[in-house]
Structure formats: C-alpha cells, structure tokens
C-alpha cells in the first residue's frame, strides 16, 4: 500500500485488523519523513492518521515541526493538518501567512483555509478574492468563502470554469467538485472537449461523475 491508498483502506468497514495495522504503519512512517522530497507526502500521511482517529498523534508530531519551519508554504501544510487534527488555534497561522507582505505563501494559505472549512481573517480573504492579478489566489479565496455559502464567490468560480484561462478552468472544476451541486456537473463535463492541456482534462475527468 501507498500513503495515498491508506486513508481509503482505513475507512472501509471490511478492512481486517492486519490490513488496518499495516496501513497505520505506513502512515506513521510517512509522518516521520523530514526530507524535502517527502514533505507533502508526510502531510497526506498526517491527514490519513487524523481521519483514522489519531489526531493526538498527529499534533504531537507536527507541533514542534511547525515551531521550527520557516518556509511559508510548508507552514501552511503543517498548520492545515494541525487544524484537521483538532488545533483550531492554527487558523491564525494561516491568516498571518495570507496577510504577509511576502506573497510566496498566499495561495497555499487560502487553499488550506478552504480545505479545513475556515475563513480566518475575513477582510484578508475578501481582499484575496477581490484582486484580479492572480487567478489561483482569487479562486482559492473564493473557494474558502464559497464553502461558507457566499453566492458571489461561487459565481466567480463558475465564471472561471466558463473562461479561457487554463489554471482557472482546472481549479474551478476541482473546487466545484467539492462545493458545487448537481447543476455544475454538465458545465464541467462540457469543458472536457476543449480542455487546453492533458492536466486540465485530467482534473475535470476526476471531478466530473461519469455517466
């Protein structure tokens, strides 16, 4: 098994105890990785462990790591998984990265807020949504706001799906796959025929239910 498959294995009712222990062992090993190449797999391992009910274990491993990590994007990943594991105080870390003068971590901060269902600094996320220069940041901010039910950000996401920007189309499809409704299925499916790159098409294929 891989880190990517362990979470789904653990969620299955028919998983045997032996397979469950194997999956947990893989996730625990993944969580301990500290090299650059395995940072994001370690965050996925943390998510899997939290979903399996081991949030305390995740917090114990990630709290000291966050205290020493200086890379803003990695700090977003660490804060996100700590929030998932139950430490809501780390929403403040994401809000501070989003408002930092250095834009390096802004997209990751907005994306992480979306993933954990938080807004953080409401004024900051609104500013990120209002700006037009960076479509990735705009859409991730829209996603964070849209998850709370805000109508205008949701319409902006749908507009990006209809647009010609490849990143906008890809992210819009991915976001609507999580917070959209049945009415979004056909608009996503309709972009499969003119997806500008294989990557965009792959995102839309994964998002859109097959007939």
Summarize the entry for a quick read.
The protein is an all-alpha fold. The protein has 13 helices and no strands.
Oligomer: single chain
The mean pLDDT is: 93
Radius of gyration: 18 Å
Distance between the termini: 29 Å
Poorly predicted spans: none
User: Quick one: overall form?
Assistant: globular
Number of helical segments with 4 or more residues? 13
Helix content: 55-70%
Category from helices, strands and their pairing = mainly alpha
- What's the β-strand tally? 0
How do the helices and strands follow one another from N- to C-terminus?
HHHHHHHHHHHHH
Biggest β-sheet strands, sense, barrel: none
- In what range is the share of β-strand residues? under 5%
Strand-helix topology:
Elements: H1 3-11, H2 17-31, H3 39-51, H4 55-68, H5 72-84, H6 91-98, H7 106-115, H8 122-130, H9 135-147, H10 151-162, H11 166-179, H12 185-190, H13 198-207
Helix pairs in contact: 1-2, 1-3, 2-3, 3-4, 3-5, 4-5, 5-6, 5-7, 6-7, 7-9, 8-9, 9-10, 9-11, 10-11, 11-13
General description of the model:
The chain is mainly α and 211 residues long. The chain has a domain at 149-211. Helices cover 69% and strands 0% of the residues. It has 13 helices and no strands. The chain has helices at residues 3-11, 17-31, 39-51, 55-68, 72-84, 91-98, 106-115, 122-130, 135-147, 151-162, 166-179, 185-190, 198-207. Helix 5 packs antiparallel against helix 6 and helix 5 (72-84) runs parallel beside helix 7. The longest helix is centred in the N-terminal third of the chain and has 15 residues, at 17-31. The protein is globular.
């Amino acid at each position: 098994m891989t880190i990517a498959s362990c979470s789904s294995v653990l969620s299955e009712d028919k998983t045997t105890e032996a397979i469950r222990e194997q999956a947990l062992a893989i996730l625990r090993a993944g969580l301990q990785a500290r090299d650059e190449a395995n940072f994001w797999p370690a965050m996925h391992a943390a998510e899997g462990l939290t979903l399996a009910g081991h949030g305390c274990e995740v917090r114990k491993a990630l709290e000291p790591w966050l205290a020493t990590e200086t890379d803003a994007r990695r700090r977003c990943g660490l804060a996100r998984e700590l929030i998932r594991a139950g430490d809501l105080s780390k929403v403040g870390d994401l809000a501070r990265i989003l408002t930092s003068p250095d834009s390096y971590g802004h997209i990751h901060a907005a994306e992480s807020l979306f993933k954990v269902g938080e807004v953080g600094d409401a004024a900051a996320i609104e500013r990120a949504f209002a700006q037009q220069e960076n479509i990735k940041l705009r859409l991730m901010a829209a996603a964070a706001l849209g998850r709370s039910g805000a109508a205008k950000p949701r319409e902006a996401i749908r507009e990006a799906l209809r647009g010609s920007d490849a990143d906008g189309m890809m992210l819009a499809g991915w976001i609507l796959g999580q917070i959209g409704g049945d009415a979004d299925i056909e608009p996503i499916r309709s972009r499969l025929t003119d997806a500008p790159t294989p990557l965009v098409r792959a995102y839309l294929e994964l998002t859109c239910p097959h007939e």
